[in-house]
Design a protein that fits this description.
Blueprint lengths: L1 E17 L5 E9 L1 H5 L6 E10 L4 E10 L5 E9 L9 E13 L7 E11 L3 E11 L1
Length: 137
């Protein structure tokens, strides 16, 4: 089965501090934008938990968990990308992320695929973005 992902999402993130290597650590919870659900769009997979870091060279890495809206089984994902330091006076940080889906639980044990994310992380802790890609199970 192929699952196409083309969603706008919103959520909140938290800066957790910095690790010994100087990477900024973040955690977030996301959900599909309510207007998409109001329009009758029922996504097969929705991102729920994201943990990532950004190093001194603006390189982003992390992990995410997506869950099935229908079965609540999960798909695991690895994140790589960039999150450039914002120019002075800009109230958000951008992130450009490659998502690689690698296995999961239940019906998604063999999940594989990829997606691209473009996100904005605002100074107030809110975030929003778009994810587009495909998962094969």
């Amino acid at each position: 089965m192929n699952i196409s992902i083309n969603q706008r999402y919103k959520g909140f993130y938290e800066h957790l501090g910095t690790d010994a290597a100087g990477r900024a650590l973040f955690s977030s919870v996301q959900s599909v934008e309510a207007s998409a659900l109001d329009a009758g769009i029922n996504p097969e997979l929705e991102v729920t938990a994201v943990n990532w870091s950004v190093d001194k060279n603006d390189q982003l890495s992390g992990k995410a968990i997506f869950h099935s809206v229908k079965t609540h089984h999960q798909v695991s994902a690895v994140l790589t990308g960039t999150s450039p330091t914002p120019p002075k006076g800009q109230n958000f940080r951008q992130a450009f992320v490659e998502v690689t889906f690698k296995g999961g639980t239940g019906n998604y044990r063999s999940a594989q695929g990829s997606a691209q994310v473009e996100a904005q992380l605002y100074d107030d802790g809110s975030s929003e973005g778009v994810i587009k890609g495909q998962v094969t199970v």
